[in-house]
Design a protein that fits this description.
Layout lengths: L2 E3 L5 E5 L6 E5 L3 H16 L4 E2 L11 E5 L1 H4 L7 H11 L3 E8 L6 H12 L3 E8 L12 H15 L5 E4 L27 H18 L4 E7 L8 H8 L5 E2 L2 E4 L10 E2 L14 H7 L3 E2 L8 E6 L19 H17 L4 E5 L21 H10 L7 E4 L2 E6 L2 E5 L12 E2 L15 E4 L8 E5 L2 E5 L14 E3 L1 H10 L8 E4 L8 E5 L2 E4 L13 E3 L1 H10 L8 E4 L8 E5 L2 E4 L14 E3 L1 H9 L9 E4 L8 E5 L2 E5 L8 E4 L1 H10 L8 E4 L8 E5 L2 E5 L13 E3 L1 H8 L10 E4 L8 E5 L2 E4 L8 H4 L1 E3 L1 H8 L10 E4 L8 E5 L2 E4 L13 E3 L1 H10 L7 E6 L3 E6 L2 E4 L7 E4 L10
Helix pairs in contact: 5-6, 6-7, 9-10
Length: 882
């Protein structure tokens, strides 16, 4: 690119419509403006367009290169990540970087660019030059300066850089050559004299080859020059009688306002339309040869067309009027370069520029232009951005699976999405071990790893234990959240190994979403293919996946129960004794060892609330039940859709035998019948009606809905609270009073007979407790009660006829098993209200086996009866013979 400069206080950049010459002028007075008009008129008058046939490309097509200093330095209109994606899209394997030496020069910015380029799998082409005076440069290099600069570059980068050019547009009128002392902006600028350039080039060539003989060194890069300036002549004038070696001659054959099928007027070798004129010149230059002694090839190291005719510096007649025309011109320009045997074709710029220069081939948002597709077709690039678009939606391919993208702002390459008809052929979930990173939103920067389809977060700073989380794929937070919500569980059978923390190296296996600790890999193919996850990620996942999913089949692989198949319902493993009765067991069950199952079972004894099961055989075949507080209640009507787990009669019978009662504190809601909407809370297995949730601190909304049939069936077998149950009154005059169920009766306590009884007490309102007490007026006969404190601590009594009678020996009474501890105050209160057994009570004394009828506290012999309360012989001393 040729730069002319007049006396300057303010600079204006223009591109002449016919000569492709950038003119840097100062408009400081009316006289200057008139001078500019005269220059422009004269230049226009020189334009005589000639038509030329389009040459066919040679077989060895030029390697596409691109450049965009602002973008690749991450400070321009397009961020560097989008720029690199665009470069790969067009098939550019190399990025050109201009390294401008000047006062205060350091290698820091070049180091960063070279490293970043290499990290993206691309090569760097370095143009080693000094900043032109016209652009603020303050150093005039000597031959020794240039040789030292080139040597430093080749020594610094070694084999990392394969291509160097020496000086950017030395033949352009932008340098202040041969003037010492402090440069003055008002002095006329010059081109580097060809003889001086030749000396610098040869010194630079020798310095680079000495540091790295494998590097390629290019003569130039040469500007078009003015209409009367032949750049081919500049090459000739830079040569001596001795042979100058070069791997190529680098040129900038712009003709921004002229079709590449046409020639620029004036001197030869100017513009892409006259690029063929270089061939004979270089072939005949006997003192300019390649290291192997052949003719030196061309390299087009800058070329481009403006984005539109309104873009600077193309806001003159003749420029491409639209993107379609630009793409067509670019296609022809590339073919011209190919036909001329050019080794490189560098499109300048990649990114859209500012108002003074805009040949950007890529849109500002990183999306594709027709010109990009032209170069992609020329290179045969098959690079894909990793994004696809179908049905108006964009997806990123992550570990082989498409994940929907909702916001492309922070995702370079998203705008380069490939259009596909549909998503068939892709995996349903990303491959195990894939890392992703959220690029926006409140969780920006969060890394997660795909494990069995689920996204498991990686703790901050823990990538070091996970191979650096290499290959992580960026997603927007909406896409991540949507996927995570649809894939919350690790797929069954997935093996996971903890990578950090005290449990490092512990292997678990996913079973229905839950991770079960593996004790031995002997039966699991050595646990091959596990996925490493850090401790924090596993803790996060486990907190949300405590239960194996309903319906999951599990098979024990070792131990006494080896081969036993179980099916999970509400988190509990239910033994399957006959697969036929439940419609068959799949063969893709998950194999787990005894150790893992024993740990799991220890924490999953009761089915989760709301679980539906259906009995598939036996007398109650077809019966659907729902888990409430661990108990299964039969139902005739579903409150909506019942999605049950099918089980056989024996499995359900075994479970019911150990889960007869609804767990204390469980809230149950009747959803049909006369009491529809009634909420109850269970205490000691009994449902206690809640009339006002406020009085008990509120009722949760996740209660379990049960039909009237199921509740009636349950209530028929749960009339009294289980012995030992604690309840706490939450309102009324006795608010805070804790009582304990003893033989169905609630005895108020002054002191907890067991530690922390207040914390486990079920909170109930006064009305609920009064309703219960009205039907449970005395301790049930036969109940054993032990005093927990006071002088008589340890004394055991037994309920008979509503009263507590003393025992002196538990040995003949089965050691008084099932006794309930009550504090001294509670026992004293109870005895004070019921001092004697009710008349008609019969006691059976053991071991004498005598039967005694109690009347008004006295005893008389009576006949044997099954309703007698058994006491030891010593108890009779408290009842005189009538």
């Amino acid at each position: 690119m040729l730069h002319l400069r007049c006396r300057a206080s303010r600079r204006l950049s223009l591109m002449t419509a016919f000569l492709d010459t950038e003119v840097l002028l100062v408009i400081s007075s009316p006289r200057d403006r008139c001078a500019l008009a005269s220059v422009m008129f004269a230049l226009a008058a020189l334009c005589l367009l000639g038509m030329a046939a389009r040459p066919a490309p040679v077989s060895a097509a030029p390697t596409v290169m691109t450049q965009s200093p602002g973008a690749f330095a991450n400070s321009g209109s397009l961020d560097s990540e989008r720029a690199f994606a665009g470069a790969k899209y067009i098939g550019a394997g190399t990025i050109r970087h201009i390294v401008q030496n000047d006062v205060g020069f350091t290698w820091a910015s070049t180091d960063a660019l070279v490293t970043d380029t290499a990290n993206h799998g691309l090569y760097s082409f370095l143009t080693l030059t000094y900043r032109p005076y016209a652009y603020g440069g303050r150093r005039i290099p000597t031959t020794a300066d240039m040789a030292s600069f080139c040597s430093a570059a080749a020594t610094r980068y070694g084999s990392t850089i394969t291509d160097y050019s020496v000086f950017n547009e030395p033949n352009a009128y932008t340098y202040k050559w041969g003037v010492d002392s402090t440069p003055d902006h008002h002095d006329i600028v010059h081109a580097v004299p060809a003889v001086d350039y030749g000396e610098m080039y040869r010194a630079c060539y020798s310095a680079i080859k000495a540091a790295d003989p494998t590097s390629r060194v290019y003569f130039g890069e040469l500007s078009n020059g003015t209409a009367d300036f032949n750049p081919c002549n500049y090459v000739s004038n830079a040569l001596t009688s001795s042979v100058t070696r070069a791997d190529g001659v680098a040129i900038h054959p712009y003709q921004l306002l002229v079709n590449p099928l046409d020639k620029l007027t004036g001197a030869a070798c100017r513009g892409i339309g006259r690029i063929s004129e270089w061939g004979p010149v270089l072939a005949s230059a006997s003192t300019l040869r390649t290291p192997a002694g052949g003719a030196v090839p061309l390299a087009v190291t800058e070329f481009g067309y403006c984005r539109s005719s309104s873009a600077k510096p193309c806001d003159e007649p003749g420029a491409p009027g639209n993107e379609t025309q630009r793409a067509s011109w670019l296609d022809a320009a590339y073919d011209n370069a190919s036909a001329a045997g050019a080794t490189y074709f560098n499109y300048y710029h990649l990114a859209p520029g500012d108002n003074s220069w805009d040949t950007g081939i890529m849109n500002a948002d990183g999306s594709v232009t027709d010109s990009m597709n032209t170069l992609r077709a020329k290179t045969g690039s098959t690079w894909e951005s990793g994004y696809v678009r179908t049905g108006g939606a964009t997806y990123r391919i992550v570990g082989g699976a498409p994940i929907r993208i909702y916001d492309c702002t922070n995702l370079p390459g998203c705008s380069l999405a490939k259009d596909v008809p549909n998503l068939s052929g892709y995996a349903s979930v990303p491959a195990n071990g894939t890392f992703v990173r959220i690029e926006d939103g409140p969780a920006q920067g969060q890394v997660a790893r795909v494990v069995g389809g689920a996204m498991v977060p990686v703790g901050a700073g823990n990538c070091g234990a996970l191979n650096g989380c290499s290959g992580m794929v960026a997603l927007d937070h909406q896409g991540f959240d949507a996927y995570a919500a649809a894939h919350p569980d690790i797929a069954s059978g997935t093996l996971v190994r903890q990578a950090t923390g005290p449990g490092a190296s512990q292997i678990t296996r996913s079973v229905g979403g839950a991770l079960l600790v593996i004790g031995t890999c002997s039966y699991l193919n050595g646990c091959a293919g596990w996925v490493d996850i850090d401790e924090g990620g596993l803790d996060f996942y486990n907190a949300r996946h405590k239960n194996v999913a309903d319906g999951t089949f599990v098979r024990q692989v070792d131990g006494a129960a080896a081969g036993q198949v179980t099916r999970v319902a509400g988190g509990v493993r239910m033994a399957i004794n006959n697969c036929t009765t439940i419609g068959g067991c799949p063969t893709d069950w998950v194999n787990i060892d005894e150790y893992a199952l024993s740990i799991y079972d220890a924490h999953h004894k009761a089915m989760a609330d709301g679980t539906y099961v259906r009995q598939n055989d036996g007398g109650a075949a077809g019966q659907v039940s729902r888990a409430v507080g661990g108990a299964l209640l039969p139902m005739q009507t579903c409150p909506g859709t019942c999605s049950w787990v099918q089980l056989d009669e024996q499995a359900i019978g075994t479970y019911n035998a150990t889960h007869k009662d609804i767990a204390d504190g469980t809230f149950v809601r009747q959803f049909n019948g006369a009491a529809a909407g009634q909420v109850t809370r269970v205490a000691g297995g009994v449902r206690m009606a809640i009339n006002n949730c406020t009085t008990i601190g509120g009722c949760p909304t996740d209660w379990v809905n049960i039909d009237q049939y199921g509740l009636d069936a349950y209530d028929a077998h749960h009339k009294a609270m289980a012995d030992g149950t604690y309840v706490r009154q939450t309102d009324g005059g006795a608010a805070g009073q804790v009582s304990r169920a003893v033989g169905g009766f609630l005895i108020p306590l002054a002191t907890c007979p067991t530690a922390g009884c207040g914390g486990v007490a079920v909170g109930l309102a006064e009305a609920s407790l009064n309703a219960y007490r009205s039907t449970h007026t005395a301790i049930a006969d036969g109940t054993f009660v032990r005093q927990a404190d006071g002088a008589a601590a340890g004394e055991i009594t037994r309920a008979a006829g509503g009263a507590l009678v003393s025992l002196t020996d538990c040995a003949p009474l089965g050691n008084c098993a099932g006794r309930v501890d009550v504090d001294q105050a509670g026992i004293a209160w109870y005895r004070s209200t019921r001092p004697k057994p009710a008349n008609g009570t019969v006691l059976k004394a053991v071991p004498s086996n005598g039967y005694w009828l109690i009347t008004d506290g006295q005893r008389t012999p009576t006949s044997a009866t099954s309703s007698a309360v058994i006491v030891n012989d010593g108890t009779l001393a408290d009842f005189p013979v009538a």
